Amino acid sequence: MKIDFLKEPGYSSSFYSYIKVEGIGDHIFEIIDVLGSTHGTLFPACSFNIFLIFWDPIYISQAKYSNWIISFNFASHNITIETKSYYYDKKDIYNNNNIADLSYYPNNAFSNSSIPFQGFGQYGGPLVMVSLNTETGKDLLLLDSGYDFFSFTPIKGSKGDLKYLSFVLNYFNLEIQNFSLVTLKETISNNNNNSSSSSSSSSSSSSSSSSSSSSSSSSNSSSSSSGSGSKISNMNNLLIFNFFIEFNVPIFENIGINIDLIGSNYPIQPIIEVDFNVVNPNLNIFPDARYSLGIGRKILLDFPFGYLLGSNKSFRSTVVLFWINSTLNNVISLESTIFNTLYAIRNISNITNNASVEPPKLISYKINRISSETVLYTFKINSINGLDKISFSGISHFSIDCLIEGDIYSGTYEITVHPIYHQVIELIDKHNNIVLLEKDQFISIDPLVQFSNTQDLTFNFDLNSFNNITFLKNDLNLINSSVSNIMYLNSSDIAIDLPMYLGLVDPVSLYTNTIYPFNYNSTLGLFYCKFIVPKNNIFGEIDFAIITLSNRNYDISTFYYIGGSFFSSKLIVNQTYLDNQGPIFEKIEKIGMNEIFSNDSVLGVKSRLIGWNLFISDDYNGFESGYIKVIGSHDNSIYNFNFTSEDFSSGDKWSGSYEMLINVSYPCIPQSFIITNVLLKDTNDRTSEFNLYSELETSSIKSPFFNLYDQQMVDILYLNYTSSPIPTYSSPQVLDSFSSSRTTIDVLGVDRIVDFTFQISLAPGGIKEDQLPIVYMVTSKMEKLKCVSKLIFINSTIANYSCSSEIPLGFGYPDPILLSLYGFIGNGGVFNGFSTSDLMNHNSYYINTTISFGNPIIKSNELFFSDSDRLVLIGREFESTSSVFIDYNDTNGFSKYAHTIQTIESSIIILSNVKATEKSFFIKVQNLNGKFSNIYKVIPIYFNIIPSTTVEPTETPSTTIDPTETPSTTIDPTETPSTTINPTETPSINPPQLCIGSPLCGGSNQGYCEEKVGCICYPPYNGKSCQSKVIIIDPPILNPSNPSTNLTFNDDKGSNSNNNKSLIGLISIISLRELGLNNEIKKTHFFEKWIQITLSNNKHQYITNIKGTSTNITIETEWFDSLTNITFANQQLTMNPSTLKYNINITKYEFISKINSLQLVIQSKLSKTSNVDDSTCSSQSFGETTSNENSNYIQLSVNEYSLFGRFIKRGIVDNKTISINNEQLNDLNSENSYYTSESYIGINIPWFKDLVQLDPDFSVLLDQSSANSICKDQGHNLSKNALIGIIIGCIGGAVVIVVISFFVFRYRTNMKIVKIKLLKLNKY
After folding, report:
1. How far is CA 1310 from CA 13, 54, 420, 921, 1226, in A?
2. Model pTM?
3. Which one of 335, 458, 686, 697 is least enclosed by Cβ atoms within 10 Å?
């Protein structure tokens, strides 16, 4: 085996290298185990023998100019290789990059004081700005806390003066965090307490001098305030200390949810009404909550949806939802969107489950590669429960909107997807039964048909195939103007139908999520790709990557990423000024602060406008548009402000003021108006964003407020006013009428508009006329659509409203759509609404759905550049298209397209002679029956290239896979047995066991010997020699606090009293630990508060979560009274009487690293509590069972009785059956004496994405005495007679984890290829 670096390391938002391995043939490797300290991560990259190393930034900070070294295990070989540092021959360049300025926001955030930083919103951490004299723009800048690192993002400047910005968050809730600034110079530290973390950022050559450097740096630095940031000049490195953030997220307190099943008189399938009450005396603005019903069905409770009656001080929430008959949907939970904080959970009973467990079945298929942007799939699918959706890579989901024939039980679907998203395909029915379509999977045995994909082509190329690259334009000028460009690739090794894409990974393009497809021009014999370099970008080299697909398998990780540093051709920018920052607030003035409203002119004013005057700057790109949301603290009134650069009251788009005003008049309730959300965008699509609460982690680098961090958040965001006297109106509005224009809607029709009208009688005090109620439409999938009303008429007694909405394609089918109405707000501060059950009195509370065919509908189009004449339309039912009409938005209206119309199946139209235009235009089609489609708007991408230099694709050979065109490959489900092949990895099997015992295997009545397996036992006998016998004991008493279980029973010497049991067996779930590559413990999570739900007499459920994460743990305990067979991971297991089974579900866990694993720690203990005498002995053993059981076991014995645990050595990890390792843990203190035997078992769980399922169980075995017995009198060992044990089956002591969704991005932490976010350092 030979391993070579192909080139020196590259850099494009992260450091990477390519290595070539010779001597491995065509063997396929996934992620490679990196040994020792984490210097980087190794991935397959291109062809079978090219691998990609992503270097760890912290390691780079310690080895800036020395060789970079990495060790890994490859094909059972431990290999260490090294290469020159990226900065090796650039030391003279980077060592001269001095820090010209350093600023803090706020200016005292990192001062040596105990005052905490008040977080500016949930993720509004402090900021550090560094101004650097750099000529390259590829500097190494990090803030290292010892726990985590925070990278710097280049935001402003030009060559020789570039500003970088970084932020910090308190991930670990530490009262004090220390940070050292890591640069390409040596890091300086000082002698403050807890300052040792800085040394971890220093290279070995600098650590000895760090102490002496710190004192001089402190004395030489000067602190001054300029603008909004505290600046420290002439300082290359700095230790930052005494920092912590204080920001509390309010949660609902002491709530419980109530559920009412709406009865049999309901004309559609069962629905449930769910409600809860909240008391909130502090007038907190809560983050949104959401309901989860079963697996994958969630609905957001964002005001006003569900808010039935009250004010923010005290309110009731009520919604009506569908109940789905499925064993997977018997629990409803309420949680906050922030950290998934669980508020309440309830079991839904009294529903008969009539769902089938048989998953959908693929009957036939056809695949057609349309272009480098589109693949067309045609599936014929049968589903007993009805098909719910077809999922591609867990990202793109398709449903009834793609049905072209039949129905959800037996239908034909046409689906268009981007080639990047079709790696993992799942068919999912309405009850969440899933079948995964994998490469080479058999969908029929007779005739023999395998599932293949367009990626089964053999692409014979390597990295050298991409060496011949040129650009139409180079040495770019990006000052205030984006550049349209073309990349040319000349290679005879690359198949002309290979899907390839270009992604720009410069600081500005990195977050646009745009990739550009390659096409092939047969006339020129070249691949070419049109792309656009955004204006005001970074100087120097523009980083890019070529992404293509592998023929390895269908995992998203097998995209080939070829970084731009590998190529000899570079894309260079000579003239530019970087503006990578969104618009920001320079100043905010309040208008009408603390105003008093009253009918009495002496006490106050009757009415006036109050609000904010916003001074917005964007010094280079210029401000373009903004959105701001304001919420009332008492009545939850919502004001949405959308504005553009043309709305300024003074100034211009580079620096202007904008007024945001709210009309307030008496009567009104005293409250504060609070800015909760801000989104500002400049002319280059750079955005700044603020969210008071955010479900997803955001960066304060993007905060529009950071220039105002020296002020308190409440001083900026809160606008207070009061009233005198305070109105006391508390009555809600009364609904007089409510009607819908449709009782049934065709959700595949062209006309899917529905209108609603309603009238209310006004409550005393009147209503806030600027608060418009919303009609909500909810489906059985818990999808939600809203229709915002308009006020049509109002007087002193009534108000009339109406609204109109277009129903999305396929919405709700085949079930009805539930209606509700929320969002009335009275002047006395009371809001109210009307749930579906309230609307029943008006006979218009749902809309039936139906479908029909023959309706052409345009859904989308492929990328259309302004200089192009080829337009690809994507939609449905195009096969009988006769005419196309285009309105070029030139006052001439629609005109008939006069050229050839090419249709492919039902879903594609290709027009090859469309007018090139920069303006948006409109298009519609007509079929042979005279039916018109919807009118669709096409928005061209402006592309400014002289026409003579533009190349258009010649027709690319179509790649079509159609194994089902001939009768021999058409499958009739009535003739062919149903075959479901699950994705599995062959689990390891225990080695053969010898048959033992006297008589052998307990004799003919207790078991028999099977060669190469061991003893096979007849129930109730068990164990290696079949001499253990199950005894019947009383069921355990319910533990209301946690899923720990005590099994109590008497030995032969004990009393028969139930109150005086002589032996106690304990099973407990202790913790979840994250382990590193060498099994070192990275984190330990203990389970604190559990919610207990009784499902039946013998079945109970416990639910908790890992605090501060989205990981939930759900445990079901089930007591078996009789012999029962179950199946797990295609293996049948026997649950004997008196068996306690644990099912443990652990949802998605955020690993620190992809190479880490989890370990579930389970405690088992057997103690003798009475009749302890000199003959008492205990023992324990751990080993392997027979190969047919393929398990580990733990046996804890006290005298004649033993507690036996069986841990099956296979698990289901993200829907794949794989081998699982169980081990006896020696690092935890066990209590072992002559009367107690205790052990901890670790079930090792590999890295996973969504869910894992494991399956251990406990039982009693009869065995011989152990050599390691512990006895009070060492003259007495355990009896050599057979030991009697107890069966305590715990399928799980188990970790049972059932997959919800499969593969999104396997290596998403390190390689987000689809979005071109390759292990980005920026947390932007």
Report:
1. 12, 8, 18, 41, 33
2. 0.70
3. 458
